[in-house]
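Reply to dn_fold:

You asked what the input looked like. This is it:
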Amino acid sequence: MRCHVYNACLQSPVLLDKSNKTQSVLTNSTKGELIPLHYDKDYARKKLIQMIIIDELLFNMVEGVGFQAFCQSLNAQFLVPSHPTIARGVMSCFLVEKAKLKSILCSGARVSLTTDTWTSIQTLNYMAAIARFLDDD
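and this is what came back:
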């Protein structure tokens, strides 16, 4: 037993990876080796917020019984945040992206702005503004 502990168990990828202090689940890699599968709640929350932004979903979708059951089936450790928490996360993501865009524009990036206007069959006027970033290529 001692031989097994020192030769096999102490060489386990879970024990060798000291960066994450949470309990790991082992999964098979493409090479057939066991690798630790770590759960990061901040990463999961960030991906949830990105999904809501990209798919233009309602914030209160996260409070639905079906969505919560689905999330629990994927990972029981994930606590689905409330819709006000999602709204704060979306706003902080917006502020980060706004700061990135502002720094790009302040660094001398060139932008071409064009507009297009049209009238619908119901005589409603529409206008679209398009911004294209120009780089050296």
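The CA atoms of residues 63 and 82 lie 6 Å apart.
Hope that clears it up.
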